[in-house]
User: What shape does this take?
Amino acid sequence: MMLITPLLGAESGFQALPVAFSLGKALLLIGVVLTLAIFIIPRLLEVIVRARLREILMLGGVIIIIGTAWLTSWLGLSLALGAFIAGLAISESPYRHQLFAEILPFKDVFNSLFFISVGMLLDLRFLGNHLLPVLLLGLGILLAKGLLGGLAVKLLSGSTRMALLVGVAISQIGEFSFVLARFGQDFRLLDADLYQGFLAITVLTMLFAPRLMAAAPHLAGRIPERLDSRLARDRGKTASEILATTGNHTIIVGFGLNGRYLARVLKSSSIPYCILELNPRTVREAQKEGEPICFGDASRLEILQMVNLSGARVLVITVTELPITRRIISVARLNHPRLHIIARTKFTMDVDELYRIGADQVIAEEFETATEIFARVLAEYDLPRNFIAAYIDTIRREGSPMLRQPQLPAVSVEKLRQLLAGSIVQNFLLLEDSPAAGKTLAQLDLRKRTGATIIAIVHNDRSTANPPADSVLTVGDLLVMMGTHRAMDSVEELLSPK
Assistant: This one.
């Protein structure tokens, strides 16, 4: 559009030579961009990064952007297009993330200046005199863009919910349109009234857009399931072929890092599973790898039925979006009361709500991170492993609210002391290369060395209670022992292979 706009505004009408010249400049610009992206800018940034100074990196990035913008202006194109091309070139550099972090403050400042300038250009008297047409046109544009964008997503993915979310997200008039409108005004394509009308309508759509995007997930959740029935029909045959199980399987919702690791473990354990994912690219890649995956929104009953919800044993929700997790749990629990549901969430404050909805287990990233951190800190101070394990176990049993308190309650510490002082019964499997293999109980003298007592030995599926002192231990024996937590730690150190 930046290339065509000057031609549209030409007073002499359409001429082949200016069009050919503009296309030639465009091809030349593409060649320059490719050269910069592949050869010059990465090497230039590498030299800048070697200085190991943030200030030089920041100034270098700004100079590259301004220089590219100047180059496109010198070629007869716009500064805005040049800055855009510079961004594309920098995005190919391995240092793009650090450079983005350094330039981010400029982004915030320039964004503020941009929208302030838009507000200064808007004529409020014009808006007041033409309020009704502006409102109608603004709503019409929101509706038209949303419908067209949503229809395209619906045709590509089949998901009505996804179509609504995408349609709302792209319904507003974009910020780059301001640049294009100003460019068109310079070439007399827009007079003053049309330009003011365009500004007013654009600002209106930008004011409505954040509120519409906030309401979109709630609206998507109210879409009747029959609107997605075509998706279920279109995908049902493929899903049934992928599932290839009579039941007792695990349904994995989401195929990110957590979903991939879970699928790998289930596959190695010969446990049947299937995966639901809403990212078409992820689905295609996983299908090439032979994964039992299909495209579908797990918050829809028809999609869950497609992967044999009634025959499933476990449902694992690996996505972290709370509204989506709520809907999936509600639908699954209502239609399969005996299903074991494991949900993932980011914050501990959401755990109780998900339990109320119907989850059997909720794993909060915040809680798990906290327990792992303090466990490693205690281990660094050489506290007994049994003490650390008991502490973690107590916190898990008493619930995550403990971590939101300034300090652990005294009753928990007292329980820990009682737990550590009391005796427990624990099994220990004698592995190959264990120092105890081939020795008798008298030679091992476990009670004197650790304080633990062997109360039974299971050998070749036969149990011997109160084994005699001359009993010989062999690899594969299961030792049933009684003692304190500290004694069990000592047993593990003594009997484990070195």
In short: Confidence is low (pLDDT under 50) at residues 229-242, 402-413.
